[in-house]
Design goal:
Length: 648
């Protein structure tokens, strides 16, 4: 039976892992007729060095007479997206060469704007048929025998605004240290055609090849019909041509141009996002996840076996009529039965944290459920952030119920006070940090600054939905009878023996936090790369598996630490069970510091403040979530073992 269960469990994990590659696009496919207009929309400029997005037209690009913003959801606004129309003209399957967008003469100040963004390594983001523009690059896959393998293509979101010439990798006709802007874009669009399934053509990929070229006019300027010496249908723009500088001069005349190429593709519309999700280190990802699961399951099995056998022996000894009198004279967890359910210090604070923890757990489970099913596809831009925010608000009913339920166990009569603090504590901290960071971003004139109207909408969600739902959950819980505890609390607290150093709370909490963090730090790396390195993340199947492993690990490490604590006759287990698993957040924050210095190249104060501000907030949420898991499992464990012993 054990072998059969293990086999079924492994098959289930494998199936869930495979789900990570499946998604529902979220929008219906668009069929284009031959020659039909295809809209190209511009999005924000972003950089991994500054983490500050800017509106595309914050730089003096060619722009239409009337700039029309697209409707955006809450998630898009919070992430700094700003989608607008453009001058680019694209028609289905019509090839264009050397199309002139506009000619502009820039002064020193405007050139400095371009130069500053190029030196900060900003990328341009465009959208065609809801697909983001991507730069294709190749990685060499080494064969299993160490021989040279094939080259595999990958997509990098967006394309560079320009580049700075260097001595190490000199470009033709460039000067080291000079910034050059990409003023020519070759748009490569891939379409899929299937006459048996649908009429027309569907766009399945959008690549951009960016070039810098100092255009020369062939003859007189004739508006958009002008002929160029540096670009013709027979001699398109190449890397070897003299680039367009934006530094070192007082003024520059820049001609912006583009090509449009169409290529047929066998990729179906439902699979068109797959190339964006392709990972350069997929094997490392797979092996790391499997290794993490194997190690954690092995340790969990060992811990569970030790606790089960030891606890079983204790119960037999305590409940045996022959040994009961002798057992009462020994040390052990039974001797503190009259104090083990004594309410802890700062009981209100623990109720608030546990209630908020259940709110975060509920949000995480529902979000992962819909993400694994594919409803939070990147095609629904901003959908993930919007869903998490709304689910957190809706889960307020569980926060109120849990905090009041625990408060009744502690004998706290004022459930309204506990509910109020639960509804404003974590959301208030989150909103306060967000407001301060948003003010700093606003001072940088970034499009990432959330407008005042959105701040009002967040406050409405908080006080108009979250707070009432917390009170509703608390009211429902207050009408239920309190949980009956198996042991009565004595009037006078028992004196706790002096504890050895390795049984002290700080040591056990720091030691216990290692294992939960070890269960998920590989996935944390990929999530952080997605957030801070602007990469796509859609491995929710893996994340779901890791969340299960994290839950098991938090529960078991807290139970084990509490059991040995009770064996040392220390009944102050309430807070310690929460902190044992919750202290994994300390390792998360320490890891974020290491990630900052090893992976990030941030040299702006506001950007560093954004990074550490949001990572502190994430670490706090991780502390509350993992602590609640450990506390809940430990409470069930303690309640169970003391219900199993006989007390005279």
């Amino acid at each position: 039976k054990m072998m059969s269960r293990s086999t079924h469990g492994l098959l289930l994990l494998f199936v869930i892992g495979q789900v990570s590659a499946f998604y529902l696009p979220g929008v219906s496919p668009r069929n284009y007729d031959y020659g039909e207009d295809v809209n190209l929309k511009v999005n924000k400029l972003d950089s991994v060095r500054t983490q500050l997005p800017y509106d595309y037209y914050s730089l003096p690009f060619c722009h239409p007479d009337k700039i029309t913003p697209s409707a955006e959801n809450l998630g898009e606004v919070l992430s700094g997206d700003k989608i607008e129309n453009s001058l680019y003209k694209i028609s289905m399957k019509l090839i264009e060469s050397c199309k002139i967008l506009c000619r502009k003469t820039y002064g020193k100040h405007e050139l400095q704007q371009f130069e500053a963004k190029i030196r900060d390594e900003y990328h341009v983001n465009w959208i065609v048929d809801n697909l983001p523009a991507a730069t294709k690059y190749y990685t060499e896959e080494i064969g299993e025998d160490g021989s040279e393998g094939t080259y595999e293509s990958h997509y990098l979101k967006g394309f560079p605004l320009g580049y700075v010439a260097t001595d190490e990798d000199p470009e033709p006709d460039t000067t080291a240290g000079t910034a050059y802007v990409h003023n020519h874009a070759r748009l490569v669009l891939f379409y899929h055609e299937d006459m048996d399934s649908f009429n027309g053509f569907r766009i399945v990929a959008f690549e951009v090849e960016a070039y810098s070229v100092k255009h020369q006019v062939d003859g007189n300027w004739d508006g958009l019909q002008t002929k160029l010496k540096t670009c013709t249908p027979l001699n398109p723009v190449r890397r070897s041509q003299a680039p367009q500088p934006v530094s070192g001069t007082e003024s520059e005349e820049i001609i912006w141009s583009y090509d449009v190429q169409w290529e047929s593709s066998p990729i179906k519309w439902a699979s068109r996002w797959d190339v964006y999700f392709k990972m350069t280190d997929s094997k490392v990802h797979w092996f790391s996840i499997i290794n993490s699961i194997a190690v954690v399951l092995f340790l969990s099995a060992m811990v569970a076996m030790i606790v089960t056998r030891t606890l079983h022996r204790d119960l037999l000894r305590y409940n045996s009529p022959e040994e009961r009198e002798e057992a009462q004279e020994e040390t052990g967890w039974k001797l503190i039965h009259g104090d083990v359910f004594r309410p802890p210090a700062f009981a209100h604070g623990l109720c608030v944290l546990v209630g908020t923890g259940y709110q975060l757990i509920g949000m995480s489970i529902v979000t992962l459920f819909f993400a694994v099913l594919g409803f939070l596809s990147p095609a629904n831009r901003g959908g993930l952030m919007t869903s998490m925010l709304l689910l957190f608000v809706l889960m307020g009913i569980f926060a109120g119920f849990a905090s009041t339920f625990l408060g009744k166990i502690f004998g706290l009569e004022d459930w309204r006070k506990t509910s109020f603090v639960t509804s404003v504590c974590f959301p208030g901290i989150a909103f306060g940090v967000f407001f301060i960071l948003n003010a700093m971003v606003w001072g940088e004139a970034s499009s990432g600054a959330v407008p005042f109207g959105t701040l009002i909408a967040l406050l409405v969600l908080w006080f108009g939905m979250n707070v009432p739902l917390v009170y509703i959950g608390a009211y429902i819980s207050s009408k239920r009878p309190p949980l009956e505890l198996p042991m009565k609390v004595k009037v006078h607290p028992r004196e706790i023996p002096e504890q050895v150093w390795y049984a002290q709370a700080p040591f056990l909490a720091l030691l216990g936090g290692i294992l939960p963090f070890a269960a998920c730090f590989i996935e944390i790396f990929f999530i952080m790369s997605s957030v801070w390195m602007h990469q796509f993340y859609y491995m929710f199947g893996f994340l779901f598996i890791v969340f299960i492993i994290l839950t098991i690990t938090c529960a078991e490490i807290s139970i084990v630490a509490t059991y040995f604590q009770l064996c040392y006759e220390d009944y102050h287990w309430w807070w310690r069970s929460f902190c044992t698993s919750g202290f994994s957040a300390i390792y998360l924050f320490l890891y974020s510091i290491m990630y900052y210095y090893t992976k990030m190249r941030i040299d702006h104060f506001v950007s560093s403040a954004l990074y550490f501000g949001y990572m502190s907030l994430i670490s706090l949420g991780f502390f509350v979530l993992t602590g609640t898991i450990g506390f809940s499992a430990t409470f069930f464990f303690v309640h169970k073992i003391y219900s199993s012993v006989k007390v005279d």
